[in-house]
Write a structure and sequence with these properties.
By secondary structure, this protein is of the alpha/beta class. 29% of the residues lie in helices and 17% in strands. Bound molecules: beta-D-glucopyranose (BGC). Beta-D-glucopyranose (BGC) binds next to loops.
Length: 740
C-alpha cells in the first residue's frame, strides 16, 4: 500500500463511509467557472449542474462573495451529503492591497515583514470568501529569462526556505479555523524554476544531488511549516511529469517529508500528460491518482475516467478514498463542516479590505524591497524642493504598478510615480513627459497585453516623445527616468530571450545623460535585467521591481530620503544573456577561472566575457555606508552536533541612519560531493544610527553544515569550513573552523 496520510478524523471517516464512489470522485474535482479572473486558457463548463450533481470539491477564481455564496448554497442544500466547497484563488502578493512582486518582497530580507504581508493577504482574501490560497510559490530560479522568476524569492535555497516558512505561517496562522487564516498551497512541486532555456512549461532534468541540495529545500521548508496543500508542477522530472510522478508526490513528499495535506494539480497539468506522451486521459488520470495526486484542477480527468478505471481494475477504491480523505480533512481543518459559510460574511469586506493600515504595510514593504544599485555622486536622496524632470514610460503608468500575478488586485488603486512625487514632495517643481514608449514593436506589445493594456504605444512618434522629454529635462536640475519592463513582460508564459531594457528606452536614457544633468533611473522589472551599458553611464539606479498598490508613494519616500534603501538582490544580475545560468553558489570546478578574470586558455572562462556577474547576489547600497571589521569565531574546532558563532563589528560610517543585511556564506572545503564555492547560511537585518557600531552575531547550527551526499543522506562531513561575512555574496572577511 502506498504511504498515506495517517490522520483520522471521526467526522471525516463517518462521512467517507456514507459516500458512493461518484461522490468521492466528485470531491477530487476542482473547477473554475469563468467570469472571474482568468488564470489559464480554458474555463470549466456547466459548473452549476456539476455542483448539484456532487461532482465538485472546490472552485477557484470566483468573482465575488455573492457568487461563492450561491455556489455554496448549491453544494450544501442541493447535494445528498451536503459537503461544502473549498474556494481557492491566486493571492500571490496581496489580495486587494497589492504588495510588491515576490521577487521584490524577498529583496527586503525581512521575514517578519513578509509574514505580515501574508497575514494581511489572508485577512483580506478570507473577508471575500476565499479559504485556500495558491501560494507561496517557492521555485528556485536561476534563469532570469524565465518570466516566473518574478513570483518567487530568487536563486537561493536558504533564503527561499526562510521566505517559504514566513509565508506559510503568515497565511495559515496557528489555527486554520480562525476566520482570518486560509490554507496555503506550496507550489510548484517541483523544480519548475529550472525549466530548460527559461521557456515556460518546459522540461527539467537534474541530478538528485542537485535537486536535494539546491532546489528542494524551500518546498520542504513549507512542509515543515505545516503547509496544508501542495501543487504539482507542469514540468517533468526524470522523465515523468510532476503530476503523475509517484517518486515526487508519494515517496518524497509523503514518506520522506511527512506531508499530510492534499496535493492539487496545476491548471490542466493532468491532461497535459497526454501531450507529454504518457497516454490517453484515462491512463494519465489513473497514473496521477496512483502517484499521489488528490485533486485535479480544471482538467476533469479524474471526474470523467476514474470510475471506469476502478471498474477495469486500474485503480483501487482505497486510492480514491485516500485522495478524498485528504480533501475532506482540509475542509474539516477550515471548519467548513461546522459552518460552510464561515468565510462568507458580508460585514467583513468593508472593514478588512484595502484599509489604511494595510496600505501602510504595502508602502513599507515596497520601500524595503527596493535595491539601490548605484548612487552616482550621491545624487540621491533628492531635496524635496528640487526642480525635477520626471520622465519615462513607467512614470505615470497606472496599469504597471501592481506587478504580474495580481489577479485579485485592482489596477486603478495603484499610485503612479508622478502621483507619489506630488504627494511626498509637494514643494518640488515636477515636470512630466513620457519620453518614450516601453517598446515600439506592435506584435510584441500585443503578446504582452493579453490581460489589457500594459504597453501603450503613443500616437506621437518616438522622436516627438523624446523631444518633449529633452525639453523639460533641459529646464530642470535633475532628471528622474522611470524605465524598464511592463508588468506582463514577466510572470507566467512571459519568458524573454533578451532581458535588457528595450531599445527605445535605452535611447531615451542616453539622450537624457547627454544633457549633462544628473540622471536617476528608477528601474522597474520582474526579473534581473542585463544593464551593463546603463550601469556604466554616469547615472544613479534604484531598482524598484513592480512595487504594488503604494508604488508611487514608496518610490518617492526613497527618492526623497524619507526611507533609506536597504534591499539586497536575491538573484544575480548577469552581464549578458550568455552567462545564464548564473548564481552565487556555482561550483568551483577543476579548472577555476583566474581571480584576475583575465582570460586564460584551458580554464573555465569565456573568450569574450568575464565569469563574474554585473551585480552579485546579496548586493545593494544604502545612502549611508557600512564598514565590516573584526570577524570572530567562537570555536576553531567543533564536534558533530555543535554550533558555531560568528560575529563581526558593523559600523555605520556614513551620514544617514540605515539598515544593513549582514550575510554569512559558508564554504565546505573538503567533502564527498563537489561543494559550491560558497553558500548563504545566515543573515541578519540590523539598523544602525549614523556613527553607531554594533556587534552582529550569527549562529551556524549543526544543520547548516549538512548537505545531501550521493546516497541523499543529510550529513556534515569532517573537515575544514570557511566562513565569509559581509554585505553581499562577494564578502571577504573570513575565518575558518574544522569539524572533527
Ligand atoms: C499557474 C498556477 C496557478 C494556477 C491557477 C496556473 O496556470 O501555474 O501558479 O495557481 O494557474 O490559477
Amino acid at each position: 500500500m502506498m504511504a498515506q496520510n495517517d490522520e483520522r478524523i471521526p467526522e471525516v471517516e463517518s462521512l467517507l463511509e456514507k459516500m458512493t464512489i461518484d461522490e468521492k470522485i466528485g470531491q477530487l474535482n476542482l473547477l473554475t467557472p469563468g467570469g472571474g479572473v482568468a488564470t489559464g486558457s480554458v474555463v470549466s463548463k456547466n459548473v452549476e449542474a456539476k455542483i448539484k450533481a456532487g461532482n465538485v470539491g472546490g472552485l477557484f477564481g470566483v468573482a465575488s462573495p455573492e457568487k461563492m455564496k450561491m455556489a455554496q448554497d448549491l453544494a450544501v442544500k442541493e447535494t445528498r451529503l451536503q459537503i461544502p466547497l473549498l474556494f481557492g484563488s491566486d493571492v500571490i502578493h496581496g489580495y486587494k492591497t497589492t504588495f510588491p512582486i515576490p521577487l521584490g518582497l524577498s529583496s527586503s530580507w525581512d521575514m517578519e515583514l513578509i509574514k505580515k504581508t501574508a497575514q494581511i493577504a489572508a485577512k483580506e482574501a478570507t473577508a471575500d470568501g476565499i479559504n485556500w490560497n495558491f501560494s507561496p510559490m517557492v521555485d528556485i530560479a536561476r534563469d532570469p529569462r524565465w518570466g516566473r522568476i518574478a513570483e518567487g524569492a530568487g536563486e537561493d535555497p536558504y533564503l527561499g526556505s526562510a521566505v517559504a516558512k514566513a509565508m506559510v505561517t503568515g497565511y495559515q496562522g496557528d489555527d486554520l479555523t480562525d476566520k482570518e487564516t486560509m490554507l496555503a498551497c506550496v507550489k510548484h512541486l517541483a523544480l519548475y524554476g529550472a525549466v530548460e532555456g527559461g521557456r515556460d512549461y518546459n522540461s527539467v532534468d537534474m541530478s538528485k544531488v542537485k535537486m536535494f541540495n539546491q532546489y528542494l529545500p524551500p518546498y520542504k521548508a513549507a512542509v515543515d511549516a505545516g503547509v496544508a496543500s501542495a501543487m504539482s508542477s507542469f514540468n517533468d522530472i526524470d522523465g515523468v511529469p510532476a503530476t503523475g510522478n509517484k517518486w515526487l508526490l508519494t515517496d518524497l513528499l509523503r514518506e520522506r517529508w511527512g506531508f499530510n495535506g492534499f496535493v492539487v494539480s496545476d491548471y490542466t497539468s493532468l491532461n497535459e500528460m497526454i501531450a507529454h506522451g504518457l497516454g490517453d486521459l484515462q491512463a494519465v488520470s489513473a497514473l496521477a491518482l496512483k502517484a499521489g495526486l488528490d485533486m485535479d484542477m480544471v482538467g476533469e480527468g479524474f471526474l470523467s475516467t476514474l470510475k471506469k478505471s476502478l471498474e477495469e481494475g486500474k485503480v483501487t477504491e482505497e486510492e480514491i478514498t485516500n485522495a478524498c480523505r485528504n480533501v475532506l480533512i482540509a475542509k474539516h481543518k477550515l471548519g467548513l463542516f461546522d459552518d460552510p459559510y464561515r468565510y462568507i460574511d458580508s460585514s467583513r469586506p468593508k472593514k478588512d479590505i484595502l484599509t489604511k493600515e494595510n496600505r501602510e504595510v504595502a508602502r513599507k514593504a515596497a520601500q524595503r524591497s527596493f535595491v539601490l544599485l548605484k548612487n552616482e555622486n550621491n545624487v540621491l536622496p533628492l531635496e524635496k524642493t528640487s526642480n525635477i524632470a520626471l520622465v519615462g514610460p513607467l512614470a505615470d503608468s497606472r496599469n504597471n504598478m501592481l506587478g504580474t500575478w495580481a489577479p485579485t488586485g485592482d489596477l486603478k488603486n495603484g499610485i503612479t510615480i508622478l502621483e507619489g512625487f506630488k504627494n511626498v514632495a509637494p514643494k518640488a517643481t515636477i515636470n512630466y513627459a513620457k519620453g518614450s514608449n516601453i517598446l515600439n514593436d506592435k506584435t510584441l506589445a500585443k503578446n504582452i497585453n493579453v490581460f489589457g493594456p500594459r504597453v501603450e504605444i503613443s500616437k506621437e512618434s518616438p522622436e516627438e516623445l523624446l523631444n518633449e522629454a529633452l525639453t523639460i529635462a533641459k529646464k530642470s536640475e535633475v532628471i528622474v527616468a522611470v524605465v524598464g519592463e511592463a508588468t506582463e513582460m514577466s510572470g507566467e508564459a512571459a519568458s524573454r530571450t533578451e532581458i535588457s531594457i528595450p531599445d527605445t528606452q535605452k535611447k531615451l536614457i542616453k539622450e537624457l545623460v547627454a544633457t549633462g544633468k544628473p540622471v536617476v533611473l528608477v528601474l522597474m522589472s520582474g526579473r534581473p535585467l542585463t544593464i551593463p551599458e546603463e550601469f556604466n553611464l554616469p547615472v544613479s539606479i534604484l531598482q524598484v521591481w513592480h512595487p504594488g498598490v503604494e508604488a508611487g508613494n514608496a518610490v518617492a519616500d526613497v527618492v526623497f530620503g524619507d526611507y533609506n534603501p536597504s534591499g539586497k538582490l536575491t538573484a544575480t544580475w548577469p552581464r549578458s544573456i550568455g552567462q545564464i545560468p548564473i548564481y552565487h553558489s556555482m561550483k568551483i570546478t577543476g579548472r577555476p577561472a583566474p581571480a584576475s578574470e583575465e582570460f586564460q586558455k584551458f580554464k573555465s572562462n569565456y573568450l569574450d566575457e568575464k565569469n563574474s556577474p554585473l551585480l552579485p547576489f546579496g548586493y545593494g547600497l544604502s545612502y549611508t555606508t557600512f564598514e565590516y571589521s573584526d570577524i570572530k569565531i567562537n570555536k576553531e574546532t567543533i564536534q558533530q552536533g555543535e554550533s558555531v558563532e560568528v560575529s563581526v563589528a558593523l559600523k555605520n560610517t556614513g551620514a544617514y541612519d540605515g539598515e544593513e543585511v549582514v550575510q554569512l556564506y559558508l564554504r565546505d572545503v573538503v567533502r564527498s560531493v563537489t561543494p559550491p564555492s560558497r553558500q548563504l547560511k545566515g543573515f541578519k537585518k540590523v539598523f544602525l544610527k549614523k556613527g553607531e557600531t554594533k556587534t552582529v552575531t550569527i549562529t551556524l547550527s549543526p544543520e547548516d553544515l549538512k548537505f545531501y551526499n550521493s546516497e541523499l543522506e543529510f550529513v556534515a562531513e569532517p573537515g575544514k569550513f570557511e566562513v565569509f561575512v559581509g554585505g553581499n555574496s562577494n564578502a571577504t572577511l573570513t575565518k575558518s573552523f574544522v569539524l572533527e
